[in-house]
Amino acid sequence: MDINDFKAGYFREQFQYKSFSPSPINEEWIWTDAKINTLLSEANLRLGELNAFSLYVPDIDIFIQMHIIKEATTSSRIEGTQTNIEEALINKVDVLPEKRDDWQEVQNYIAAMNDSINQLHKVPVSTRLLKEAHKQLLQGVRGENKLPGEYRTSQNWIGGSSLKDAVFIPPHHAEVSDRMNDLEKFIHNDQIAVPPLIRIAIAHYQFETIHPFLDGNGRLGRLLITLYLVSNGLLTKPTLYLSDYFEKHKGLYYDNLMLVRTQNNLGQWIKFFLVAVIETSKKGIATLQQILKLKERIEQKKIAAMGKKVPRARALMNLLYKTPNVNAGLVEKMLGVSKVTANALINDFVKASILKEVTGYKRHRVFVFQEYLRLFLS
Q1: With helix as H, strand as E and coil as C, how does 253-315 read?
Q2: What mean pLDDT value characterizes the chain?
Q3: What's 214's DSSP letter?
Q4: Per residue in 8-40, pLDDT tens?
Q5: Model's pTM, two decimal places?
Q6: Do 183 and 25 contact (CB within 8 A), yes or no?
Q7: Do residues 270 and 198 touch, judged by C-beta distance below 8 A?
Q8: Most buried residue among 88, 146, 151, 285 by CB atoms closer than 10 A?
Q9: DSSP class per residue in 151-184
């Protein structure tokens, strides 16, 4: 199938509205646009550099959790959730009551991401895996009554307040299962020569167009990208998260998806997607470089000066790389030390200007590794 000849689908008459019936995508795709070749080459190069760099970073797994937290907050923010990274890092009891639903949605995304990545060892990227992730996304939050883990059995829409003023109406629910099966076959079809980044670009577009669930489709569609890249070996570790780029270019993200549906312009969507991979890969490398510099400076100049406390100080540093917001209770639990030792260690880190107390309280104090946290806020 030549990308230029692709017909994305057609609008099908329903009762008092028209839904979009997407064409199957399980095809061998070709294109004549040289710009796609150029961008694909650079995207592969940058993604390869990011993957190689992540393998070079010692103890990379301790840094990945913060990448996942950032992805969770950003992907959820695209859907209107207001929780930021700083709030995502605190305990539920410390979250304002009116923000707890948003906070929980982000925590669900983090859990879905972590569990899905772990599941890849025994379950391929599939409708089964996506349904399990969807169930986690909606657990105990506003969409918990919208068939978690199950395809929708009614019509949904995107934008607007109803079907009458919707920006886009996905396919009728009777078409969902068939189109999702086609999508799954396309992802795994080893009989067609489609480069992985082109394949996942098309797959993401198709998923968002099918909108197979009543809620959570945006977050799940972006999670699909990371799962695909890891499962196909383009990334050894989940270090590329495109939600930050999509959120900063939210208008273009939605416009380019709509261009495919309304003008069959799949090529423009693919180019936008490849640029997102390029820019996000470069930013990921820059962030890892900054982390390594920060880690080296703190360990050589501050931790090394703590004498007999060095082993526990290093253990606390490893904890801070995973969660830069801590309190004495968390340090006591995670490091397996007494309350007195935990408080003494935290005080040493405050004196060394590694941690800063942010509540101003005498009790229930929270300490933040601000230098590290700032690397994920830009």
Answers
A1: HHHHHHHHHHHCCHHHHHHHHHHHHHHHHHHHHHHHHHHHHHHHHHHHHHHHHHHHHHHHHHH
A2: 90
A3: S
A4: 999 999 888 999 999 999 999 999 999 999 999
A5: 0.90
A6: yes
A7: yes
A8: 88
A9: --SS---BSSSSTTS-SB----HHHHHHHHHHHH
Helix (H) or strand (E) holding 43: helix 34-56
Q: Which domains, from first to last, does the chain contain? A: 3-286 (1.10.3290.10), 291-374 (1.10.10.10)
- Could you give the count of Cα atoms lying within 13 Å of 64 in the half-sphere of its Cβ? 20
What 3-state DSSP class applies to 9? strand
Measured between alpha carbons, how far is 343 from 332 in angstroms, rounded to an integer?
8
| DSSP 8-state assignment for residue 30 | B
In contact, 216 and 141? CB cutoff 8 Å: no
Cβ count within 10 A of residue 325: 22
* Rounded alpha-carbon distances, angstroms, from residue 363 to 29, 94, 185: 61, 13, 56
What is the C-alpha to C-alpha distance for residues 38 and 11, in angstroms, rounded to an integer? Answer: 34
How much is the pLDDT for 82? 67
Neighbours of 253 (CB within 10 A): 23
In this structure, the chain runs to a length of: 378
Ranges 104-108, 292-296, 366-370: which has the least confidence: 104-108
C-beta of residue 331 within 8 angstroms of C-beta of residue 346: yes
Coil vs helix vs strand at 234: coil
Query: Cα(375)–Cα(241) distance, rounded to whole angstroms?
Result: 15
| pLDDT above 70 (res 162) | yes
Give the sheet arrangement for strand 325-326, strand by strand.
Answer: 325-326, 367-368, 356-357
**pLDDT 10s digits, 37-62:** 999 999 999 999 999 988 887 777 77
